[in-house]
Amino acid sequence: MKLTLKYALAAILLMFSLAAPVAAGSLEDGYTAYTRGDFATAMRLMRPLADQGYVTAQTVVGLMYYFNYGGDYVSAYMWFTLAAAQGNAFAEMFLKDTADKMTREQVAQAEKLAREWKPTTQLPR
After folding, report:
1. Which of 3-12, 27-36, 53-62 is most confident?
2. pLDDT of 95
3. What is the DSSP letter of 87?
4. Contact assessment for residue 97 and residue 71, using Cβ atoms and an 8 Å cutoff
5. pLDDT of residue 10
6. DSSP label at 61?
7. Which residues contact 112 (CB under 8 A, 6 or more apart)?
8. C-alpha span between 123 and 119 (Å, rounded)
C-alpha cells in the first residue's frame, strides 16, 4: 500500500480531535511546525509527549522518522508499534507499510526497542 503525506496530514488532524487536553497546546504547536516544514521544532515539541506515552504524539513522531528523517524506519516502526498497542489504527496501518520497507533484522531491532521502551512519566487519568 502506498501512503502519501497528504493522507498522513489528514489523519494527524483527525488524531488531534482525540488528543488529551493536557497535551493539546504542544500537539497543536508541533503540528503547526510540522506542516510548515520546521521538523526540528516539531520533533522538539512532540518527542517529550511521545516519551510520556501520548498516542497521538507517538504516531506523529513515527511519521517524522518515516517521512522526514531520512527514512529511519527502525525508529518509525518502534513509535508506530507503541501507538498501535494503544489502539491507534492509523499507526497500525503505517506499521504494516513500514515493515514492508525493512529487513527482518531491522524489524527485530525495532520490536526490541518497543519492548524495552518505558514512559518518562505517568499519563494523567
Report:
1. 53-62
2. 95
3. T
4. no
5. 54
6. H
7. none
8. 9
| Helix residue spans in 1-125 (DSSP H) | 5-16, 24-35, 39-52, 55-67, 73-85, 89-99, 104-116
21-30 mean pLDDT:
73
In the block, cell 502519501 appears at 4
CA nearest to 52, candidates 121, 124, 125: 121
Q: With beta carbons less than 8 A apart as the criterion, state whether 77 and 110 touch.
A: yes
Residue 31 C-alpha cell reads as 503540528
- Other CB atoms within a 10 A radius of the CB of residue 54 amount to 24
Q: What is the model's pTM?
A: 0.79
Task: Using pLDDT thresholds of 50, 70 and 90, give the confidence band for residue 69.
Answer: confident
Distance CA 60, CA 75 (A): 12
